[in-house]
Design a protein that fits this description.
The complex is a heterotrimer of chains A (about 110), B (about 525) and C (about 140).
Chain A lengths: L4 E3 L2 E3 L1 H20 L24 H4 L8 H6 L1 H10 L4 H21 L1
Antiparallel strand pairs in A: 1-2
Chain B lengths: L3 H28 L1 H29 L2 E4 L21 E4 L1 H24 L6 H20 L3 H19 L7 H31 L4 H7 L4 H18 L7 H8 L2 H26 L5 H23 L5 H25 L4 H40 L15 H14 L6 H16 L1 H26 L15 H19 L1 H17 L1 H10 L2
Helix pairs in contact in B: 1-2, 1-4, 2-3, 3-4, 3-10, 3-13, 3-17, 3-18, 4-5, 4-10, 5-6, 5-10, 6-8, 6-9, 7-10, 7-19, 8-10, 9-10, 9-12, 10-12, 10-13, 11-12, 11-16, 12-13, 12-15, 12-16, 13-14, 13-15, 13-17, 13-18, 14-16, 14-17, 15-16, 15-17
Chain C lengths: L11 E6 L5 H10 L11 E2 L8 E5 L2 E2 H12 L6 E5 L1 H5 L9 E3 L9 E3 L6 H20 L2
The chains are: A mainly alpha (about 110), B mainly alpha (about 525), C alpha/beta (about 140).
Chain lengths: ~110, ~525, ~140
Amino acid sequence: MALTLSTGSGFWNPVVWLIAIAVVVVVVYLVWRRGEAGYTAGSAQVKPFISGNAEPAKKVAQMPASNLYWGFTEALSGYYSRVVPAHTGIVTDYLLWVLWVTAALFLLVVIT
Amino acid sequence: MIPQFLWDHAPAMTVAVPLLAAFLCPLIGKFTATGRKAWVLAAAAATSALALFTAWRVYTMGTWVYVFGATVPNLSVPPDSGGIPIRIIFEVDAMSALMLVIVAIVGFSVILYSLSADGKRSGLEGYYTLFLLLIASIVGMVSTGDLFNFFVFFEISGLASAALVAYRVEAGRAVEAGLKYFVVSTLAGIFMLFVIAILYGQYNALNIAMLASRMQFTMLDKIALVLIIGALATKAGSVPMHFWTPDAYALAPSSVTALLVVASQASLYGLFRLIFTLYNLSLNAATVGWVLIILGVLSMFVGVTMAIPQKDVKRLMAYHAISQTGYMLLGVGTGLAVLGNVAMLDAFGRMAMEGGIFHIINHAIYKGLLFLTAGAIIYRVGTRDMNRMGGLGHRMKWTMIFFMIGALAIAGIPPFNGFASKLMIYESVYLFNPVLAIIAMVVSILTLASFVKVFHSIFMGPQLPEYEHVEEAPTAMLWGMGILAALVILFGLFPQQVVDSLITPAANALLDQSGYLASILGGA
Amino acid sequence: MKPTPSFNRSLWVFHLNSGSCNGCEIEIVATLMPRYDPERFGIKLVGSPKHADVILVTGPVTKKMADRVKRTYEQVPDPKVVMCIGTCGESGGVFYDSYSLAGPIDDVIPVDVYVSGCPPRPEAIIHGVVKALAKLERLEAAP
């Protein structure tokens, strides 16, 4: 039973990979167990350190999904400011896109 | 052991069983609602079994030709017809068999899921009818060897899908999405009708094999080719004709969305079938191949970049579906671009095609899983807006695990199935043109980024007070998701098995036009 | 947590400013620099109290900082040593009758070692650290 996927220029064997990862995880676990806990669970030691300030309420501290990738969308704002308005939501625009692309393909395929 | 009836007629029964069961649904539902659920589940199980049987027979014994209405099921060219196949012929070769496997797996899981997800809504007498009709139309689209028959099933799937998208009438927006989908689908259907008219007018035949043997690639044929690409790429959801996809996928019920993914892939199958089998080397392979590659790269990039800022979870996943369709177009387009050059075809063209085709089945499975998990979350929480969700991992542990499996698979992380097919695409496309492979890898990273965002905002974080009452998804839904998740892991652990038994025959069947012709015309 | 034999070999230090004029901070940084070089003994400055073994508190505790000093002290894992650097922490120093003090440090958190001076010289701070080590060894020896 061949376990290796061979692409033309490489190979990939997931079972061997998993076994290797499992061995590494076991070794890491054994090393980790020799460490010391260093804290008492359940006490104030598990609270986050925010320069000594109290932890804010859960709702206030949570970052909503829309803002998670602000940096990315801001950096690509030149791209997004053109592509997002193109998604107008008007169905006749959708049809126009299909027709324009088909026309462009005409020129490409029929002429060459 | 297997009745002779099935040995002879399984391809037809795979379409007939869901069709008949669909129209009996309202009648049974009039008497008992539980009876209707049992009926639908039984019909889905029967369809999946028949589809798997057909696929198994095709993989082990070669292409299955089934002629409707002939004295013997494989009498494609009757002696008195003058050498022309005259009836509607289903030709199930290895590529069709692969699509049948996809429909079998996803169709059954989705109906199992839908029994509890949509079980409490009203209007169910129409819903399950349309559901089974959609499954029947997808099976028909992928099995048929006749162009007009393909158009008929194409229209049936468009109608059934549009009605299913508009199922949630009370919200209003779903109806608008259904209307948009319907209009775009009708335009694609009209293009297909023009194609049929052009080809029939020129060559006097509707059977794909017959048309392929008579194909001369005149100017009219070029126009037909462009219309085919335009229509079927639109229905498959490739950029820049993808605008209907986020609307329709987001507002449909989640089980329907998972099946819409399979319907889009059936259109993609139609595109590949017509390009490779109808035209094959008569067209300018390099140009058309590059057209598919450009469409693929655009789909990948625009799909994933539009997915990142979304806040509706299903709309985000719909953009990812567009992006992954791009991978399939890239892989198969690369294979098409080197079709004329035998050396390059053997070096990496076949591998690229196998990667693209493997990606079709992988995508159907993990995308279906993702949409089902999104549906489970929406079912429990009541909103699709990710800004209002949070901390659901505390309560919905199984859903979280299934979502993680699906998200890692779509991002192409080992050892799941997405990695296997993406690796094949990367390595072979790299040999064709390194820039394309690099774009594909960047898109993969952005996919991971997007799903990390979704995972964090839905499942991570502290338990929110307004979601204290939320509990795990119902059992039927978990089983539906579980089947798909198990397959994701299985296909990821044993990719070479899957490629050898399912994918390589399919790729060879696409590339080998003469084999297709011989089964209908050469044989009898 | 019981201190292991290697604990004393590397004491990680966290500096907490509870309203100081910054003079003691400069002396603390001077102590850690290559001239006296405590890093060869494994003593290094860390950025989070959760990594620390020794807290160096400077300054008189102002009213606004009292709560935060207490919370930071609670977040340091055991075993910990608190060193008060400078006379501001012992009695208020030159600010002893200010309107904004919450009191000397040992009104807020328990202190183990006092290093007097305004500011104390680096040699005095090192002497304080030696006393802290001695205290830790006593703690370790005791069951």
